[in-house]
TrEMBL record:
<protein>
    <recommendedName>
        <fullName>EF-hand domain-containing protein</fullName>
    </recommendedName>
</protein>
<feature type="compositionally biased region" description="Basic and acidic residues">
    <location>
        <begin position="1"/>
        <end position="14"/>
    </location>
</feature>
<feature type="region of interest" description="Disordered">
    <location>
        <begin position="182"/>
        <end position="201"/>
    </location>
</feature>
<feature type="compositionally biased region" description="Low complexity">
    <location>
        <begin position="67"/>
        <end position="80"/>
    </location>
</feature>
<feature type="region of interest" description="Disordered">
    <location>
        <begin position="1"/>
        <end position="40"/>
    </location>
</feature>
<feature type="region of interest" description="Disordered">
    <location>
        <begin position="67"/>
        <end position="88"/>
    </location>
</feature>
<feature type="compositionally biased region" description="Basic and acidic residues">
    <location>
        <begin position="22"/>
        <end position="35"/>
    </location>
</feature>
Length: 201
C-alpha cells in the first residue's frame, strides 16, 4: 500500500507552518496574549489582573453561599425584564462566601458541562483554600483560575465566555435566563384595562 502523502519534498518553512497563526510564540507568556486590546488576564507579575478578578467575583457570586445582595433597581409592582445596564451589573460575593458542593457542581456544569468527580473535589480540598467544612472560598476559586490561566489561557477564555464575558472582559448578556427577573405582582397596583377602541361609552 502506497503512503497517503509524501512529505519529503517540503522544505522546513512549509513543514512547520502553523495551522493556527494566533497561537503565541514559545517565548510569550500565558495570560498576556491580548496586548493590542490592553486586556490581560494576568498582570506583569503574573497575578490575576484587577479586571479579571472582578469577572471571577461575578461568576463566583452566582453560585456562592450566602448569596450576594441583588443590585438595586427601581421599585415596580409589575414583572419586567432588566435593562441592559442592570443585566450587565457585576455581582460581588459577600466577604466570607464559599461554594457548597451544590454550588460547586452548578458552577462546573455551567462552565464545562459536567460536575467534578469526587476524586477531583478531594484534590481541590487538599490544594486550594477551603472552609473548615471543605467548601471552596473565593481565594480558592482565584487559585483555580491562576493556575489554569498560567497553563492554558484559552481554557480560561472559554470559561469566561460561557459565563457571558467577551474578550474585553465585558459582561455581554446573551442568555435569556440572565435577563429575566421574577418579581412579585402587587395586584393593588395593576391598572384596569382600557376599553377596546371603537366601543361606545
Amino acid at each position: 500500500m502506497a503512503p497517503l502523502r509524501d512529505f519529503d519534498h517540503l522544505d522546513d518553512a512549509q513543514r512547520v507552518q502553523s495551522p493556527r497563526p494566533e497561537t503565541p510564540e514559545p517565548d510569550s507568556r500565558q495570560g498576556r496574549r491580548n496586548a493590542e486590546t490592553g486586556v490581560q488576564l494576568l498582570d506583569v507579575e503574573g497575578r490575576i489582573s484587577d479586571k479579571f478578578e472582578r469577572c471571577l467575583a461575578h461568576i463566583f457570586a452566582k453560585y456562592c453561599n450566602p448569596r450576594p445582595a441583588a443590585p438595586s433597581r427601581r421599585s415596580s409592582s409589575l414583572p419586567r425584564q432588566r435593562t441592559q445596564s442592570e443585566a450587565t451589573t457585576l455581582l460581588v460575593p459577600p466577604p466570607d462566601a464559599y461554594l457548597t458542593q451544590v454550588g460547586l457542581d452548578r458552577w462546573a456544569k455551567d462552565t464545562n458541562g459536567t460536575a467534578f468527580s469526587e476524586e477531583t473535589k478531594d484534590e481541590m480540598k487538599g490544594f486550594l483554600d477551603v472552609t473548615e467544612a471543605g467548601n471552596l472560598t473565593f481565594k480558592g476559586f482565584l487559585q483555580i483560575y491562576q493556575v489554569q490561566t498560567e497553563n492554558d489561557e484559552e481554557e480560561t477564555w472559554r470559561d469566561l465566555s460561557s459565563h457571558g464575558f467577551d474578550r474585553t472582559l465585558t459582561l455581554v448578556t446573551s442568555r435569556r435566563e440572565d435577563l429575566d427577573i421574577e418579581e412579585p405582582i402587587d395586584k393593588t397596583q395593576v391598572q384596569p384595562s382600557t376599553l377596546v377602541e371603537g366601543a361606545s361609552a
